[in-house]
Amino acid sequence: MLLSKSIKKIRLTTASILVLLSGFAFAKPIGDITEFKGDATLTRQGGEELSVSQTSVPTIEMNDTAETANGRMLIEFLDKAKLSLTENTKVYIDKVYYDPDPSKSKMTMRMALGTARFASGRLGMVNKNNIDIQTPTASITVRGTDFTTTIDELGRSLVVLLPDEDGKPSGIIEVSNLGGTVILDQAYAATMVSSLDNPPSPTVMLQNVTPNMIDNMFIVSPPQEVQEQIEERAADDLNADQGLLDVDFLAYDELEQDFLDTDELEFTELDIDFLDVDFLTDVLDTVDELVRTTAQLADAQKTGSGQFQLKNAKIGLNKDSQYNVFQQDGNVVFYRQVGTAIRIVLPIDSSVSLYTEVDGYKGEILLNGGTSSTIIIRQGGS
What we know:
Layout: H1 2-25, E1 31-43, E2 49-51, E3 65-77, E4 82-85, E5 90-97, E6 106-119, E7 131-134, E8 139-143, E9 146-151, E10 157-161, E11 172-177, E12 180-184, E13 189-193, E14 204-205, H2 217-220, H3 224-238, H4 283-303, E15 310-311, E16 316-317, E17 324-328, E18 331-338, E19 340-347, E20 352-358, E21 361-367, E22 373-378
Parallel strand pairs: 6-7, 20-22
Antiparallel strand pairs: 1-2, 1-3, 3-4, 3-5, 4-6, 5-6, 6-9, 7-8, 8-11, 9-10, 10-13, 11-12, 13-14, 15-21, 16-17, 17-18, 18-19, 20-21
């Protein structure tokens, strides 16, 4: 008896499994092709291609791809939602299933190419929040709506909200992507989405347009209002701040300039190396000397050069030799502070040739002709 009961239980379970499998073995239609014209096809999930013709009108199943060539097609779903395809249009019908509880029903489609018009159903079989329409560049959330999408080969999407039978807005749709969201809530409100990253364009209102006028011509010739919005955005992008990648480094010639090839080796306090062990003077003395020299240079520039003559030098800072030349207490002072300090004090009426050979400079300065005596200074690796 126990064995017999076990067998019965096994048979019952197997029968139940067969019933479940039979329910999935044959896909249930979710809609019908109610109108068509010209060339149109349906492609099943497994790759089977079905032609739509007068002698063969296949039903619509989940995961079908509806496509038109030189033709048009109108699909009506079980909840009376309608999908209209113009010429050269492709739509993927991903998920459409109905549950007794509308909040658990689902409708998902992908508009891939061309112009398609979608009008949500009126039987309340699918919660409007569960209707999701995708394009290559945007996601469209519908709320009791009639709208069109026009998509070109680059995936750019034009979305237009259509009016109801009374000419009022048929509902509200949200067009969103990674860049942002635009809400269309007025009849013939439109937005263009150029890529997944760029936000939808601000809403524009199409003028002198009817639903029957909206077709693939919008691909090659967008409505004037949309075209103006596109051009305005393109101009804004062009005038935006240039990034590093926008800089044409070939337009600059600074690399051809040798900044070390200059005679203007200006000396400032920043050039003093306070760790240089070859310094011949105390740091505090050097700073004090610089302060006094600056003041003396200012006095010399005010009073002039006095009664002496210079050749190959002038009062003040000489950029070639880096000598500061000034008059002090009846003397002419030559002061140079580059690495180490050089200070030479000569009587104002003396005639001296000052020859200096140091790193970065080699030359002769003549005081009053330089005929009486010669001073030679060599420093560094010279």
